[in-house]
Amino acid sequence: xxxxxxxxxxxxxxxxxxxxxxxxxxxxxxxxxxxxxxxxxxxxxxxxxxxxxxxxxxxxxxxxxxxxxxxxxxxxxxxxxxxxxxxxxxxxxxxxxxxxxxxxxxxxxxxxxxxxxxxxxxxxxxxxxxxxxxxxxxxxxxxxxxxxxxxxxxxxxxxxxxxxxxxxxxxxxxxxxxxxxxxxxxxxxxxxxxxxxxxxxxxxxxxxxxxxxxxxxxxxxxxxxxxxxxxxxxxxxxxxxxxxxxxxxxxxxxxxxxxxxxxxxxxxxxxxxxxxxxxxxxxxxxxxxxxxxxxxxxxxxxxxxxxxxxxxxxxxxxxxxxxxxxxxxxxxxxxxxxxxxxxxxxxxxxxxxxxxxxxxxxxxxx
Amino acid sequence: xxxxxxxxxxxxxxxxxxxxxxxxxxxxxxxxxxxxxxxxxxxxxxxxxxxxxxxxxxxxxxxxxxxxxxxxxxxxxxxxxxxxxxxxxxxxxxxxxxxxxxxxxxxxxxxxxxxxxxxxxxxxxxxxxxxxxxxxxxxxxxxxxxxxxxxxxxxxxxxxxxxxxxxxxxxxxxxxxxxxxxxxxxxxxxxxxxxxxxxxxxxxxxxxxxxxxxxxxxxxxxxxxxxxxxxxxxxxxxxxxxxxxxxxxxxxxxxxxxxxxxxxxxxxxxxxxxxxxxxxxxxxxxxxxxxxxxxxxxxxxxxxxxxxxxxxxxxxxxx
Lengths: 366, 319
Description:
Number of domains of chain B: 2
Number of helices of chain B: 12
Number of helices of chain A: 13
Number of strands of chain A: 6
Order of helices and strands of chain B: HEEEHEHEHEHHEHEHEEHEHEEHEH
Order of helices and strands of chain A: EEHHEHEHEEHHHHHHHHH
Structural class of chain B: alpha/beta
CATH class of the largest domain in chain B: Alpha Beta
Number of domains of chain A: 2
Helix content of chain B: 25-40%
Helix content of chain A: 55-70%
Oligomer: heterodimer
Strand content of chain B: 25-35%
Number of strands of chain B: 14
Largest interface: A-B, 38 and 43 residues
CATH superfamily of the largest domain in chain B: P-loop containing nucleotide triphosphate hydrolases
Distance between the termini of chain A: 34 Å
Structural class of chain A: alpha/beta
Radius of gyration of chain A: 31 Å
CATH architecture of the largest domain in chain B: 3-Layer(aba) Sandwich
Shape of chain A: elongated
Distance between the termini of chain B: 47 Å
Radius of gyration of chain B: 23 Å
């Protein structure tokens, strides 16, 4: 709509365009998205980095058959008989058996070239193994089972084994929801916090508040841009898991998106809080690292937090990233419903709500 | 637009502030009792050295800082009761704003224009500020002069009635400074009112209709540039240096015909005179009579710089 203003004598007569209530918000959002997508670093850190990380870790920790257990037998009378018995017995994984002179056998075991050393005894065998090395414990037990079976001992009870390497129980299945949570935390905190401190440092925030811009619109546009990126992040990460690692998404995509949305907003609020007063990028990035560091360690991104002492678990479960990761895993891997996630949902909402309240209270535009 | 603003526009006073004070953290007194009255269509200059309180003053008027005491009235409104209306009717360019580097010139103006209920068409502003060629260039690629014109463009796109410019030409080359002056003159010619701060006396002298000279948070002199200059005691300056041990006696020189003021500055004696053609022959006669030798003699028009030196004993730019 174009109208002529200037009915008042002292006003300069100029053509003006009348804007609606939401024009400012729309322009802020457009500007924010343009800026983001014109920043190659943003594309890399938000979209590519987590996928590369998943790819690297997925390959490094892919499920593969364990290596053959390496057994060395000290060469003495009786060692050939033991070697022969071992070779008869079927073992999974297979055993790699060598007979070496006693001194060399002992040395090679110590150097880790063999997992277990066998010393023939009169009418039996002595195992030398290292209980701190899982492969050593396994090799001892495999060698013993093979020897006993070959010597004719019968199992006390019948047992059957079935192979299960189905998607859902592998490390990559654990990893992908964790990386997704970590990424939502990182891009929320950096994406909001960094952007704000930079704008403050550039005096751009001050310039904005010198216009009739509505401050609420500004924050709303930031949050909206965050959610738009979030949708792309989640979609890319999960499609990558599905296509490359055959991840099976058990729960509903809607529930995943809702939880991710809540996570993105919570961490955006935390980013807003950490950036509410900082005048320099360095200060803000220090604060953000202090906030995120405990969650990188404790919130079960790369390994289960159940490994920490039981005493620490209640506190770990109160961290926002723990709540987000738990929910993502429950929905993606176990197909849990949103209703079943009331506690972590509440934890996340409280973090987001409290952070937002204080951020708005403390926020400095200049 | 509110009725208040419409009523105010019929009054010739656009900005009025009284007894403005600003104390930072209870200690530093940046502004110490400042009065300003700016009329419609005026280009009003705040001239003063760095740290004089110019930026604090203009930011209080722009509603970005709160005064410790004193009153501010712009277009008949104040910041506490009518912030939204005031924001719509003023345009601001801060001393240093680094606009987003990854947005184009046009996108930046569209963004700023979008904040106003009624804004000027971006293309028109681009043409007016000679930025049309750079419309699609990223802000990061602009020269200093172009960036400054864009900063002013972001203030003009909201179709303001009052324009606040804080040090609009600091750090610019002479050509870019003249372009900025042209923009200010055009805005003024279309009926706009301007308040600008500067520490360039030539800028104040050429651009401003009325000037307040500020030092240590106070107005130490105010008037039109000719008024201020004639207040020094003459429109011309005669500056000379002598060899041969002349006395540093102001009395000697004040006795010459038509001398208003005498200053000694770094070996140079400066006389403020009304009629150089009467003073200079008398000066030469005194030099001749005492057997001194003239190592320097210049004569020029008085400037605002001289006004400032005369009032404070210091130069505007001590660098």
